[in-house]
Fold this protein.
Amino acid sequence: MGTAPSGRRTRPAHPRLWPFALASAPYGSLNGLIALGLPYVLRIHGISVGRISTISAVVQAPAIWYFLWAPVVDVGLRRRAWVMLLAAASAMFAAVAFAGAETASTRLLTVALVAASVFVQPISSAIGGLAASVVPNDARGRAGGWSQAGTLAGGVLAGGLAVWLTGRGTPWTNALLIAAMIGLPSLAVLAVREPAPAKSPVREHLASMLRDVLVTLRRRRTWLGLLYFVSPIGAGALMNLFSAVAGEYHASKAVLLGVVAMAGVLTPIGALLGGAACDRFDRWLVYPTAGLVAATSAGLTALMPRVPATYLVGAAAYALATGFCYSAAMALALELVGLRSAASSTRFTLFTAAVNIPVVYMTRLDGLAHAHFGVRGMLAADALANGVFGVFLIAWFARGSVVGLGRRRSLER
Protein backbone atom coordinates (compact mmCIF):
# COMPACT_ATOMS: atom_id res chain seq x y z
CA MET A 1 0.00 0.00 0.00
CA GLY A 2 1.51 3.31 -1.10
CA THR A 3 1.22 6.92 0.03
CA ALA A 4 -0.22 9.77 -2.03
CA PRO A 5 1.61 13.18 -2.26
CA SER A 6 -0.90 14.58 0.25
CA GLY A 7 0.22 11.98 2.76
CA ARG A 8 -2.94 9.94 2.47
CA ARG A 9 -2.61 6.19 2.07
CA THR A 10 -3.58 4.85 -1.34
CA ARG A 11 -5.37 1.62 -2.10
CA PRO A 12 -3.27 -1.35 -3.26
CA ALA A 13 -3.09 -2.07 -6.99
CA HIS A 14 -5.10 -5.23 -6.39
CA PRO A 15 -7.45 -6.41 -3.63
CA ARG A 16 -6.25 -8.41 -0.64
CA LEU A 17 -5.58 -11.94 -1.77
CA TRP A 18 -5.80 -13.90 1.51
CA PRO A 19 -9.65 -14.03 1.51
CA PHE A 20 -9.41 -16.19 -1.59
CA ALA A 21 -7.75 -18.86 0.56
CA LEU A 22 -10.61 -19.14 3.06
CA ALA A 23 -13.30 -18.73 0.40
CA SER A 24 -11.79 -21.64 -1.55
CA ALA A 25 -11.50 -23.90 1.51
CA PRO A 26 -15.01 -25.48 1.20
CA TYR A 27 -14.12 -26.87 -2.21
CA GLY A 28 -10.95 -28.40 -0.80
CA SER A 29 -12.60 -29.63 2.39
CA LEU A 30 -15.02 -31.93 0.57
CA ASN A 31 -12.27 -33.19 -1.71
CA GLY A 32 -10.11 -33.85 1.35
CA LEU A 33 -12.87 -35.90 2.92
CA ILE A 34 -13.02 -37.97 -0.25
CA ALA A 35 -9.25 -38.24 -0.69
CA LEU A 36 -8.17 -38.83 2.93
CA GLY A 37 -11.12 -39.58 5.17
CA LEU A 38 -13.17 -41.84 2.90
CA PRO A 39 -10.35 -44.29 1.96
CA TYR A 40 -9.36 -44.69 5.62
CA VAL A 41 -12.93 -45.33 6.79
CA LEU A 42 -13.65 -47.78 3.97
CA ARG A 43 -10.36 -49.63 4.45
CA ILE A 44 -11.17 -50.12 8.13
CA HIS A 45 -14.44 -51.74 7.05
CA GLY A 46 -12.61 -54.22 4.82
CA ILE A 47 -13.04 -52.58 1.41
CA SER A 48 -10.16 -53.33 -1.01
CA VAL A 49 -7.89 -50.60 -2.36
CA GLY A 50 -9.14 -51.32 -5.88
CA ARG A 51 -12.77 -50.87 -4.78
CA ILE A 52 -11.85 -47.70 -2.87
CA SER A 53 -10.21 -46.25 -5.99
CA THR A 54 -13.39 -47.00 -7.97
CA ILE A 55 -15.63 -45.28 -5.39
CA SER A 56 -13.26 -42.29 -5.25
CA ALA A 57 -13.29 -41.99 -9.04
CA VAL A 58 -17.11 -42.11 -9.16
CA VAL A 59 -17.46 -39.47 -6.43
CA GLN A 60 -15.00 -37.20 -8.22
CA ALA A 61 -16.66 -37.64 -11.64
CA PRO A 62 -18.75 -34.43 -11.21
CA ALA A 63 -15.43 -32.58 -11.30
CA ILE A 64 -15.34 -33.39 -15.03
CA TRP A 65 -18.99 -32.81 -15.90
CA TYR A 66 -19.77 -29.80 -13.71
CA PHE A 67 -19.18 -27.46 -16.65
CA LEU A 68 -22.76 -28.40 -17.58
CA TRP A 69 -24.23 -26.63 -14.52
CA ALA A 70 -21.42 -24.32 -13.40
CA PRO A 71 -22.54 -21.43 -15.68
CA VAL A 72 -25.31 -20.75 -13.16
CA VAL A 73 -22.76 -18.77 -11.09
CA ASP A 74 -22.56 -16.23 -13.93
CA VAL A 75 -26.29 -15.53 -13.65
CA GLY A 76 -28.24 -13.37 -11.22
CA LEU A 77 -26.37 -13.21 -7.92
CA ARG A 78 -22.91 -11.94 -7.12
CA ARG A 79 -20.36 -14.72 -7.38
CA ARG A 80 -19.54 -14.43 -3.70
CA ALA A 81 -23.21 -15.19 -2.89
CA TRP A 82 -22.98 -18.33 -5.00
CA VAL A 83 -19.87 -19.40 -3.08
CA MET A 84 -21.75 -19.30 0.24
CA LEU A 85 -24.93 -20.99 -1.05
CA LEU A 86 -23.07 -23.82 -2.77
CA ALA A 87 -20.88 -24.43 0.28
CA ALA A 88 -23.96 -24.73 2.51
CA ALA A 89 -25.61 -27.27 0.19
CA SER A 90 -22.47 -29.37 -0.12
CA ALA A 91 -21.96 -29.32 3.66
CA MET A 92 -25.47 -30.70 4.18
CA PHE A 93 -24.97 -33.71 1.85
CA ALA A 94 -21.50 -34.43 3.23
CA ALA A 95 -22.94 -34.48 6.76
CA VAL A 96 -25.60 -36.97 5.67
CA ALA A 97 -22.95 -39.19 4.06
CA PHE A 98 -20.60 -39.32 7.02
CA ALA A 99 -23.40 -39.61 9.59
CA GLY A 100 -24.23 -42.99 8.08
CA ALA A 101 -20.74 -44.00 6.94
CA GLU A 102 -20.48 -46.87 9.42
CA THR A 103 -23.92 -48.36 8.77
CA ALA A 104 -25.00 -47.34 5.25
CA SER A 105 -24.15 -49.36 2.14
CA THR A 106 -21.30 -48.13 -0.04
CA ARG A 107 -23.90 -47.33 -2.72
CA LEU A 108 -25.85 -44.92 -0.47
CA LEU A 109 -22.63 -43.38 0.80
CA THR A 110 -21.45 -42.86 -2.78
CA VAL A 111 -24.76 -41.25 -3.83
CA ALA A 112 -24.67 -38.75 -0.94
CA LEU A 113 -21.06 -37.81 -1.66
CA VAL A 114 -21.75 -37.46 -5.39
CA ALA A 115 -24.55 -34.99 -4.48
CA ALA A 116 -22.13 -33.08 -2.23
CA SER A 117 -19.62 -33.01 -5.07
CA VAL A 118 -22.23 -31.73 -7.55
CA PHE A 119 -22.80 -28.66 -5.36
CA VAL A 120 -19.20 -28.04 -4.34
CA GLN A 121 -17.61 -28.10 -7.81
CA PRO A 122 -19.03 -24.75 -9.06
CA ILE A 123 -17.43 -23.00 -6.07
CA SER A 124 -14.14 -23.05 -7.97
CA SER A 125 -15.91 -21.48 -10.96
CA ALA A 126 -17.30 -18.69 -8.80
CA ILE A 127 -13.87 -18.09 -7.26
CA GLY A 128 -12.25 -18.02 -10.70
CA GLY A 129 -14.82 -15.57 -12.06
CA LEU A 130 -14.45 -13.41 -8.99
CA ALA A 131 -10.65 -13.32 -9.37
CA ALA A 132 -11.00 -12.45 -13.05
CA SER A 133 -13.25 -9.55 -12.06
CA VAL A 134 -11.08 -7.96 -9.38
CA VAL A 135 -7.45 -9.21 -9.73
CA PRO A 136 -5.09 -7.90 -12.48
CA ASN A 137 -3.14 -10.43 -14.54
CA ASP A 138 0.23 -9.66 -12.94
CA ALA A 139 -1.16 -10.78 -9.55
CA ARG A 140 -3.17 -13.78 -10.72
CA GLY A 141 -0.36 -16.21 -9.99
CA ARG A 142 -0.43 -15.19 -6.33
CA ALA A 143 -4.24 -15.16 -6.33
CA GLY A 144 -4.13 -18.71 -7.65
CA GLY A 145 -1.54 -19.59 -5.01
CA TRP A 146 -3.69 -18.26 -2.17
CA SER A 147 -6.77 -19.97 -3.56
CA GLN A 148 -5.03 -23.30 -3.91
CA ALA A 149 -3.42 -22.90 -0.49
CA GLY A 150 -6.89 -22.60 1.01
CA THR A 151 -8.23 -25.45 -1.09
CA LEU A 152 -5.40 -27.80 -0.17
CA ALA A 153 -5.22 -26.80 3.50
CA GLY A 154 -8.98 -27.23 3.81
CA GLY A 155 -8.73 -30.64 2.18
CA VAL A 156 -5.98 -31.88 4.44
CA LEU A 157 -7.57 -30.52 7.61
CA ALA A 158 -11.02 -31.91 6.77
CA GLY A 159 -9.55 -35.28 5.77
CA GLY A 160 -7.48 -35.38 8.95
CA LEU A 161 -10.54 -34.49 11.00
CA ALA A 162 -12.48 -37.37 9.43
CA VAL A 163 -9.66 -39.81 10.26
CA TRP A 164 -9.35 -38.50 13.83
CA LEU A 165 -13.11 -38.70 14.39
CA THR A 166 -13.25 -42.35 13.33
CA GLY A 167 -14.35 -44.31 16.39
CA ARG A 168 -14.97 -41.14 18.42
CA GLY A 169 -18.16 -39.29 19.29
CA THR A 170 -21.62 -39.91 17.84
CA PRO A 171 -22.18 -40.07 14.07
CA TRP A 172 -24.29 -36.90 13.95
CA THR A 173 -21.90 -34.91 16.15
CA ASN A 174 -19.11 -35.86 13.79
CA ALA A 175 -21.28 -35.01 10.79
CA LEU A 176 -22.01 -31.52 12.14
CA LEU A 177 -18.29 -30.88 12.69
CA ILE A 178 -17.58 -31.93 9.11
CA ALA A 179 -20.41 -29.73 7.82
CA ALA A 180 -19.01 -26.74 9.72
CA MET A 181 -15.57 -27.41 8.27
CA ILE A 182 -17.03 -27.22 4.77
CA GLY A 183 -19.55 -24.40 5.16
CA LEU A 184 -18.16 -21.78 7.53
CA PRO A 185 -14.95 -20.72 5.70
CA SER A 186 -17.03 -19.60 2.72
CA LEU A 187 -18.11 -16.54 4.70
CA ALA A 188 -14.64 -15.04 4.16
CA VAL A 189 -15.67 -14.26 0.59
CA LEU A 190 -17.59 -11.29 2.00
CA ALA A 191 -14.19 -9.59 2.50
CA VAL A 192 -13.73 -9.37 -1.29
CA ARG A 193 -15.33 -6.33 -2.85
CA GLU A 194 -17.19 -7.42 -5.95
CA PRO A 195 -18.89 -5.16 -8.49
CA ALA A 196 -22.63 -5.68 -8.75
CA PRO A 197 -23.64 -7.86 -11.70
CA ALA A 198 -24.90 -6.03 -14.75
CA LYS A 199 -28.66 -5.71 -14.78
CA SER A 200 -29.96 -7.15 -18.03
CA PRO A 201 -32.75 -9.53 -19.06
CA VAL A 202 -31.80 -13.15 -18.41
CA ARG A 203 -32.21 -14.10 -22.06
CA GLU A 204 -29.91 -11.29 -23.18
CA HIS A 205 -27.37 -12.18 -20.50
CA LEU A 206 -27.34 -15.86 -21.51
CA ALA A 207 -26.84 -14.88 -25.17
CA SER A 208 -23.87 -12.71 -24.15
CA MET A 209 -22.41 -15.61 -22.15
CA LEU A 210 -22.74 -17.94 -25.15
CA ARG A 211 -20.98 -15.48 -27.46
CA ASP A 212 -18.21 -15.05 -24.89
CA VAL A 213 -17.63 -18.80 -24.62
CA LEU A 214 -17.66 -19.30 -28.41
CA VAL A 215 -15.03 -16.58 -28.82
CA THR A 216 -12.90 -18.29 -26.19
CA LEU A 217 -13.17 -21.66 -27.94
CA ARG A 218 -11.92 -20.17 -31.23
CA ARG A 219 -8.55 -19.24 -29.75
CA ARG A 220 -5.45 -21.37 -30.26
CA ARG A 221 -4.35 -20.46 -26.73
CA THR A 222 -7.49 -22.09 -25.34
CA TRP A 223 -6.85 -25.43 -27.03
CA LEU A 224 -3.18 -25.42 -26.08
CA GLY A 225 -4.21 -24.77 -22.48
CA LEU A 226 -6.73 -27.62 -22.59
CA LEU A 227 -3.99 -29.93 -23.89
CA TYR A 228 -1.86 -29.00 -20.89
CA PHE A 229 -4.72 -29.50 -18.47
CA VAL A 230 -5.87 -32.95 -19.64
CA SER A 231 -2.33 -34.33 -19.40
CA PRO A 232 -1.52 -36.27 -16.19
CA ILE A 233 0.83 -33.50 -15.02
CA GLY A 234 0.11 -32.42 -11.47
CA ALA A 235 -3.01 -34.55 -11.03
CA GLY A 236 -1.92 -35.33 -7.46
CA ALA A 237 -3.81 -38.63 -7.71
CA LEU A 238 -1.74 -40.31 -4.99
CA MET A 239 -3.25 -37.88 -2.50
CA ASN A 240 -6.46 -39.88 -2.95
CA LEU A 241 -4.80 -43.18 -2.07
CA PHE A 242 -2.02 -42.54 0.44
CA SER A 243 -4.24 -43.10 3.47
CA ALA A 244 -5.33 -46.47 2.06
CA VAL A 245 -1.75 -47.81 1.84
CA ALA A 246 -0.52 -46.69 5.28
CA GLY A 247 -0.60 -50.29 6.49
CA GLU A 248 1.77 -51.42 3.73
CA TYR A 249 4.41 -49.15 5.24
CA HIS A 250 3.57 -50.40 8.75
CA ALA A 251 2.46 -46.87 9.55
CA SER A 252 0.27 -46.47 12.62
CA LYS A 253 -2.74 -44.19 12.88
CA ALA A 254 -0.46 -41.70 14.68
CA VAL A 255 1.95 -41.69 11.71
CA LEU A 256 -0.97 -41.24 9.32
CA LEU A 257 -2.19 -38.26 11.32
CA GLY A 258 1.37 -36.92 11.27
CA VAL A 259 1.36 -37.15 7.48
CA VAL A 260 -1.97 -35.34 7.39
CA ALA A 261 -0.62 -32.60 9.64
CA MET A 262 2.54 -32.17 7.56
CA ALA A 263 0.53 -32.12 4.35
CA GLY A 264 -1.72 -29.47 5.87
CA VAL A 265 1.34 -27.23 6.13
CA LEU A 266 3.28 -28.28 3.03
CA THR A 267 0.52 -28.21 0.41
CA PRO A 268 -0.32 -24.55 1.08
CA ILE A 269 3.38 -23.71 1.13
CA GLY A 270 3.79 -25.46 -2.22
CA ALA A 271 0.78 -23.56 -3.57
CA LEU A 272 2.12 -20.19 -2.44
CA LEU A 273 5.54 -20.96 -3.92
CA GLY A 274 3.97 -22.05 -7.18
CA GLY A 275 1.79 -18.95 -7.33
CA ALA A 276 4.78 -16.68 -6.79
CA ALA A 277 6.75 -18.54 -9.48
CA CYS A 278 3.88 -18.07 -11.92
CA ASP A 279 4.05 -14.28 -11.48
CA ARG A 280 7.82 -14.30 -12.16
CA PHE A 281 8.23 -16.89 -14.93
CA ASP A 282 6.30 -18.06 -17.96
CA ARG A 283 3.28 -20.01 -16.73
CA TRP A 284 3.46 -22.27 -19.79
CA LEU A 285 6.87 -23.45 -18.55
CA VAL A 286 6.16 -23.52 -14.80
CA TYR A 287 3.27 -25.95 -15.30
CA PRO A 288 5.23 -28.89 -16.82
CA THR A 289 8.14 -28.20 -14.49
CA ALA A 290 5.74 -28.75 -11.61
CA GLY A 291 4.94 -32.16 -13.10
CA LEU A 292 8.62 -33.12 -12.94
CA VAL A 293 8.69 -32.14 -9.26
CA ALA A 294 5.74 -34.47 -8.59
CA ALA A 295 7.36 -37.26 -10.62
CA THR A 296 10.57 -36.98 -8.62
CA SER A 297 8.83 -37.22 -5.26
CA ALA A 298 6.75 -40.28 -6.26
CA GLY A 299 9.67 -42.00 -8.01
CA LEU A 300 12.06 -41.67 -5.08
CA THR A 301 9.41 -42.93 -2.67
CA ALA A 302 8.92 -46.02 -4.85
CA LEU A 303 12.64 -46.84 -4.53
CA MET A 304 12.84 -46.52 -0.75
CA PRO A 305 12.19 -49.27 1.84
CA ARG A 306 8.60 -49.78 2.99
CA VAL A 307 8.96 -48.39 6.49
CA PRO A 308 7.01 -45.67 8.35
CA ALA A 309 9.75 -43.08 7.76
CA THR A 310 9.49 -43.55 3.99
CA TYR A 311 5.73 -43.16 4.16
CA LEU A 312 6.05 -39.97 6.21
CA VAL A 313 8.70 -38.30 4.05
CA GLY A 314 7.33 -39.53 0.72
CA ALA A 315 3.78 -38.41 1.40
CA ALA A 316 4.99 -35.04 2.67
CA ALA A 317 7.17 -34.44 -0.42
CA TYR A 318 4.31 -35.41 -2.72
CA ALA A 319 1.99 -33.04 -0.85
CA LEU A 320 4.44 -30.15 -1.35
CA ALA A 321 4.73 -30.98 -5.06
CA THR A 322 0.95 -31.23 -5.41
CA GLY A 323 0.47 -27.76 -3.95
CA PHE A 324 2.96 -26.36 -6.45
CA CYS A 325 1.23 -28.16 -9.34
CA TYR A 326 -2.28 -27.04 -8.43
CA SER A 327 -1.38 -23.37 -8.11
CA ALA A 328 0.47 -23.50 -11.45
CA ALA A 329 -2.67 -24.92 -13.06
CA MET A 330 -4.93 -22.27 -11.55
CA ALA A 331 -2.57 -19.42 -12.46
CA LEU A 332 -2.47 -20.55 -16.09
CA ALA A 333 -6.26 -20.96 -16.12
CA LEU A 334 -6.78 -17.44 -14.74
CA GLU A 335 -4.43 -16.03 -17.38
CA LEU A 336 -6.42 -17.78 -20.10
CA VAL A 337 -9.72 -16.43 -18.72
CA GLY A 338 -8.65 -12.91 -19.67
CA LEU A 339 -10.70 -9.83 -18.96
CA ARG A 340 -13.86 -9.62 -16.91
CA SER A 341 -16.89 -10.63 -18.96
CA ALA A 342 -20.42 -11.94 -18.69
CA ALA A 343 -19.07 -15.50 -18.67
CA SER A 344 -15.81 -15.20 -16.69
CA SER A 345 -16.75 -18.09 -14.39
CA THR A 346 -17.88 -20.24 -17.31
CA ARG A 347 -14.58 -19.56 -19.09
CA PHE A 348 -12.70 -20.56 -15.97
CA THR A 349 -14.81 -23.72 -15.72
CA LEU A 350 -13.68 -24.86 -19.17
CA PHE A 351 -10.14 -25.07 -17.86
CA THR A 352 -10.75 -26.37 -14.34
CA ALA A 353 -13.05 -29.13 -15.65
CA ALA A 354 -10.20 -30.19 -17.92
CA VAL A 355 -7.73 -30.12 -15.01
CA ASN A 356 -9.97 -32.53 -13.10
CA ILE A 357 -9.98 -35.14 -15.89
CA PRO A 358 -6.48 -36.46 -15.05
CA VAL A 359 -7.37 -36.53 -11.33
CA VAL A 360 -10.07 -39.10 -12.11
CA TYR A 361 -8.21 -41.25 -14.63
CA MET A 362 -4.91 -41.14 -12.73
CA THR A 363 -6.65 -42.16 -9.50
CA ARG A 364 -8.06 -45.18 -11.32
CA LEU A 365 -4.76 -45.92 -13.09
CA ASP A 366 -2.80 -45.74 -9.84
CA GLY A 367 -5.36 -48.05 -8.22
CA LEU A 368 -4.99 -50.58 -11.06
CA ALA A 369 -1.20 -50.38 -10.80
CA HIS A 370 -1.52 -51.18 -7.08
CA ALA A 371 -3.76 -54.16 -7.81
CA HIS A 372 -1.22 -55.65 -10.27
CA PHE A 373 2.15 -54.50 -8.96
CA GLY A 374 1.61 -53.39 -5.37
CA VAL A 375 2.41 -50.07 -3.78
CA ARG A 376 5.72 -49.65 -5.62
CA GLY A 377 3.92 -50.11 -8.92
CA MET A 378 1.35 -47.51 -7.91
CA LEU A 379 4.05 -44.95 -7.14
CA ALA A 380 6.02 -45.78 -10.28
CA ALA A 381 2.95 -45.40 -12.51
CA ASP A 382 2.26 -41.95 -11.11
CA ALA A 383 5.90 -40.89 -11.44
CA LEU A 384 6.16 -42.16 -15.01
CA ALA A 385 2.99 -40.37 -16.16
CA ASN A 386 4.07 -37.04 -14.65
CA GLY A 387 7.67 -37.37 -15.85
CA VAL A 388 6.98 -38.34 -19.46
CA PHE A 389 4.45 -35.58 -20.06
CA GLY A 390 6.51 -33.03 -18.14
CA VAL A 391 9.55 -33.67 -20.36
CA PHE A 392 7.40 -33.65 -23.51
CA LEU A 393 5.76 -30.29 -22.76
CA ILE A 394 9.03 -28.66 -21.69
CA ALA A 395 10.63 -29.84 -24.96
CA TRP A 396 7.60 -28.55 -26.87
CA PHE A 397 7.92 -25.21 -25.12
CA ALA A 398 11.65 -25.06 -25.89
CA ARG A 399 10.96 -25.60 -29.60
CA GLY A 400 8.85 -22.46 -29.61
CA SER A 401 5.42 -24.09 -29.93
CA VAL A 402 3.99 -21.98 -27.12
CA VAL A 403 6.54 -19.16 -26.95
CA GLY A 404 4.76 -15.85 -26.80
CA LEU A 405 1.56 -17.35 -25.47
CA GLY A 406 2.39 -17.04 -21.80
CA ARG A 407 3.61 -13.81 -20.29
CA ARG A 408 1.32 -11.41 -22.15
CA ARG A 409 0.34 -8.58 -19.93
CA SER A 410 -2.31 -7.31 -22.31
CA LEU A 411 -5.22 -9.71 -22.00
CA GLU A 412 -7.51 -10.76 -24.80
CA ARG A 413 -11.25 -10.56 -24.65
The chain has one domain: 19-398.
